[in-house]
């Protein structure tokens, strides 16, 4: 088990104890007001955990306290790990970022792009070019998510069951089915959050000749010591698995996924590289440490330094707001770019939030988030289980408070 504990006094790593105490008070207030059932916050700087706090309950019905070893659904915080898995194969020379994915996934040849029409007749045109590896990693592929409820193509996804979270079909079969539907934009022209990282998982499987879940476990998770991060909760860990909630009509948490009856208790035929993992604070911190160390952790080098630098720079040529209509987050995307699996801070003033150019981040739909700031040698984790993450602006609030804690 990747345990986590306090390792340093805040002042010894250039942080303010007084300001970090405000994080504790904020977290306790969110629980006391019934906004969150429970939450964990963690701040690491200069390789030392200087703040770790847990409030409330992981499971209201059973009175299980939120703890550093609580297992949580990290949903889209799976995406950076899947992206790392693909980049391991990039380092082996198996593809270039501007290569079309059709050599590995021929089902994506001759794609069509939706241009208008209605439910009775969707109008399309041929894709100007094939989807590339970089298109998938940066969410500029033209793929979408069915839950977006924004386009006619989204509706096709829903009607045809293109849902990597709930399907019991194989990863290969669902990817091939998705490839039979139109794109919502020409590849490379617009940023649209999508199933792209699930397609990345299938590329990992094809290029490696291995089952994607097995590859991720053996090449990424186990080398990093992330022994509790997986696509299903093992029997022995069930008492530590949190419940998932939404805001109920009375404003208090309403159960939407019981930890004793959750789909995450069984291993499904499909492993969602876009959102299928459960993890703990200690496990995900090890991933953050590896990234901060430019690809190395405890003597194990997972990625080369230049690969990490490539993944965490902006690949869009502008910010997210200029390349599409951002959806599914409480954060503005002015001043925010995107790398190969991570959002990237470009301009804190335009983003209207404290931060550092070059800081990278992402989060999950159940109110989990992380950000890594190489310039400040800092990583922050926020772990809760409230869906959707946009219910309250807790990510932005925590960002302000943690950056305000820097004293040097």
TrEMBL record:
One Pfam short name: Beta-lactamase
InterPro entries for the chain: Beta-lactam-related, Beta-lactam/transpept-like, Diverse_Enzym_Activities
Domain of life the protein comes from: Bacteria
Signal sequence bounds: none
Residue ranges constituting the Beta-lactamase-related domain according to the UniProt record: 24-392
UniProt-recorded name of the protein: Beta-lactamase family protein
Lineage start: Bacteria, Pseudomonadati, Pseudomonadota, Alphaproteobacteria, Acetobacterales
């Amino acid at each position: 088990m990747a345990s986590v504990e306090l390792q340093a006094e805040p002042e010894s790593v250039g942080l303010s104890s007084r300001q970090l105490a405000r994080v504790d008070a904020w977290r306790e207030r969110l629980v006391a007001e019934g906004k969150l059932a429970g939450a964990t916050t963690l701040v690491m700087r200069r390789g030392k955990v200087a703040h770790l706090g847990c409030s409330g309950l992981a499971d209201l019905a059973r009175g299980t306290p939120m703890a550093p070893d609580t297992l949580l659904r990290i949903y889209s915080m799976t995406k950076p790990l899947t992206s790392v898995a693909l980049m391991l194969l990039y380092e082996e020379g198996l593809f270039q970022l501007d290569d079309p994915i059709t050599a590995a996934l021929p089902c994506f040849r001759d794609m069509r792009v939706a241009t208008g029409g209605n439910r009775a007749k969707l109008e399309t045109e041929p894709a100007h070019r094939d989807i590339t590896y970089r298109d998938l990693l940066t969410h500029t592929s033209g793929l979408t998510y069915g839950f977006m409820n924004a386009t006619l193509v989204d509706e096709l996804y829903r009607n045809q069951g293109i849902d990597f979270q709930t399907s019991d079909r194989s990863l290969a079969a669902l990817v091939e089915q998705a490839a039979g539907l139109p794109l919502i934009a020409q590849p490379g022209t617009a940023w649209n959050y999508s199933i792209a990282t699930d397609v990345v998982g299938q590329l990992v499987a094809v290029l490696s000749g291995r089952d994607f879940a097995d590859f991720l476990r053996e090449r990424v998770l186990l080398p990093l010591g992330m022994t509790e991060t997986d696509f299903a909760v093992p029997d022995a860990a069930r008492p530590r698995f949190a419940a998932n909630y939404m805001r109920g009509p009375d404003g208090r948490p309403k159960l939407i996924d019981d930890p004793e009856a959750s789909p995450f208790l069984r291993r499904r035929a499909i492993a969602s590289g876009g959102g299928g993992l459960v993890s703990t604070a200690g496990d995900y911190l090890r991933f953050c440490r590896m990234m901060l160390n430019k690809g190395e952790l405890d003597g194990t080098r997972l990625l080369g330094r230049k690969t990490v630098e490539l993944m965490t720079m902006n690949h869009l040529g502008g910010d997210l707001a200029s390349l599409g209509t951002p959806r599914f987050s409480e954060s503005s995307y002015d001043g925010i770019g995107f790398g190969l699996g991570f959002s990237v801070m470009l301009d804190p003033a335009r983003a209207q939030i404290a931060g550092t150019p070059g800081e990278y981040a992402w989060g999950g739909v159940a109110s989990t988030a992380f950000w890594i700031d190489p310039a400040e040698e800092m990583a922050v984790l926020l772990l809760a289980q409230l869906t959707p993450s946009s219910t309250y602006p807790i990510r932005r609030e925590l960002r302000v408070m943690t950056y305000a804690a820097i004293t040097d």
